[in-house]
Design brief:
Blueprint lengths: L8 H19 L4 H14 L5 H6 L3 H20 L1 H12 L4 H16 L4 H19 L4 H15 L7 H10 L3 H28 L6 H9 L9 H19 L1 H4 L3 H17 L7 H9 L4 H19 L2 H13 L3 H18 L2 H13 L2 H4 L6 H14 L8 H12 L6 H27 L1
Helix pairs in contact: 1-2, 1-16, 2-16, 4-9, 4-12, 4-14, 5-6, 5-7, 6-7, 6-8, 6-10, 7-8, 7-22, 8-10, 8-22, 9-19, 9-21, 10-23, 12-14, 16-19, 17-19, 18-19, 18-21, 18-23, 19-21, 21-23
């Protein structure tokens, strides 16, 4: 057992800081980036963590991957790639609202497995408003289905959701391993979500024949802003995704691949421009990065680093081991349900940052790193899917709500949560069956 004194100043101060950061993030009284960075700064000022230790606590692989991918999507969006995809999806569904709901949610799920979820929502929501406006059907069911699909799709791969990036980084799990272990259950959950969507909304969504005909006449090619850039965007996104899939063989980490991709796309975007335009063009792409998310991460890693340094996590780990009685099945199931419920209440990123070192302390009790893999998969499934439970559970939910409110569409905490929470619990039930069947 660790001799970490729960009465020590460092233990109490770092725990209090984590609780306060959480509370402010949930209530949204203060912007989360300010909260996390200020919390980290105060912990360093109080001497609980040195500046060196704080910087060492940051997972720069996660930061680099997010920044690189956000740059790539910013450039790709300029080309009109996403508007083109939207029109194609609507026409593929023959202008049928139920079909479009299915098509947009499916596209969101598939692309969320390879692109950042928030980015995916930022791309698909404007498309959704266009299509629903043309068909004169309510937009809320579409937004709800897309948010759910983005969180479910993002669960399937290493790069789909920030918690997976963090877990992959910490547990040395590759892109292929994530696909192999998580994609099967994700496909089942996605099918279940589509069935529920259809029962609740799909059957009731009806569009006028004239409006459907109009959508069929839209020209997808007119959505393309820049053909050269579109071609290169598709090539760069495909190459980057392929590089993620073989990152082990390349001996590169995800951040390096994403940053090279982002820089290459900025270069391609700049080539046809006059020299005087270069700086302005790069600045506009960098402005598209979700800087609030990035700084929230930076501060958060430091706050969690302080909690870890003070021995809070080791103390909790001892409690967890005592509770599971070194029963692997119990450890995996407990991790799944606890992470799902907590990730619905608080942002899943700080939660996963807190859980990673905890689960690492389990390894020696269960016979090493390889033996605790089912617990890592349980954490990934619980944290990513739990985010669907409430409006504050995951970033895409809040982004969609913000875009909806700006457009005058009601997207309230209670309205979303009343349906989302039971649907989320159902998805975790499916995960529980899968984990017991596959690993035990």
């Amino acid at each position: 057992m660790h001799s970490h004194d729960p009465q020590s100043f460092a233990f109490l101060a770092s725990s209090a800081a984590l609780v306060i950061v959480y509370a402010l993030v949930v209530t949204e009284l203060v912007n989360r980036a300010i909260v996390a960075v200020l919390g980290a700064g105060l912990l360093i000022a109080l001497g609980i963590l040195s500046q060196q230790q704080a910087i060492a606590a940051v997972d720069f692989n996660t930061i680099g991957l997010l920044v690189g991918m956000m740059i790539m999507v910013a450039v790709a969006r300029k080309s009109g790639l996403f508007g083109y995809v939207a029109v194609k999806a609507a026409q593929f569904a023959r202008g049928s609202p139920a079909g479009i709901l299915f098509a947009l949610a499916l596209v969101t799920a598939i692309l969320s497995a390879f692109l950042n979820n928030v980015t995916m929502i930022l791309l698909v929501v404007p498309v959704t408003f266009l299509v629903c406006g043309e068909l004169k059907v309510p937009v809320y069911p579409f937004l709800f289905a897309e948010v759910f699909a983005s969180n479910i799709g993002g669960t399937a791969t290493l790069i789909g959701d920030p918690p997976n990036i963090m877990i992959g980084s910490a547990a040395h799990l590759s892109f292929d391993q994530f696909l192999l272990h998580l994609a099967p259950v994700v496909l089942v959950i996605l099918a279940a979500q589509f069935a529920v969507n259809h029962l609740i909304w799909g059957r009731k969504l009806r569009a006028d024949a004239g409006d459907r005909a109009h959508v069929m006449q839209l020209k997808a090619a007119e959505a393309i802003e820049d053909r050269r850039l579109l071609r290169w965007s598709v090539i760069a996104l495909l190459l980057t995704t392929a590089a993620f899939a073989v990152e082990d063989q390349l001996h590169l980490q995800a951040a390096t691949i994403a940053m090279i991709g982002g820089a290459a796309m900025l270069l391609i975007d700049n080539i046809p421009l006059a020299h005087s335009e270069h700086a302005r063009n790069v600045t506009s792409a960098l402005n598209e990065i979700e800087w609030i998310t990035i700084f929230f991460f930076l501060g958060l890693f430091m706050v969690v680093g302080a909690v870890e340094h003070a021995g809070v996590l080791a103390w909790l780990g001892d409690r967890l081991i005592a509770a599971t009685g070194s029963d692997m099945r119990l450890a995996a199931s407990g991790t799944l349900w606890v992470s799902a419920v907590l990730s619905a209440i608080v942002d899943n990123i700080p939660f996963v940052a807190t859980m990673i070192p905890l689960i690492k302390t389990l390894a020696p009790h269960f016979g090493g790193e390889a033996a605790i893999q089912p617990v890592w998969w349980s954490l990934a499934l619980g944290a990513c899917l739990g985010g669907n439970g409430t409006l504050v559970g995951a970033s895409p939910n809040l982004v969609a709500a913000g875009l909806a409110e700006k457009a005058g569409v009601e997207f309230s905490f209670l309205k979303f949560t009343a349906l989302a929470f039971p649907m989320m619990l159902g998805s975790i039930g499916l995960c529980q069956i899968y984990i017991l069947w596959r690993y035990f």
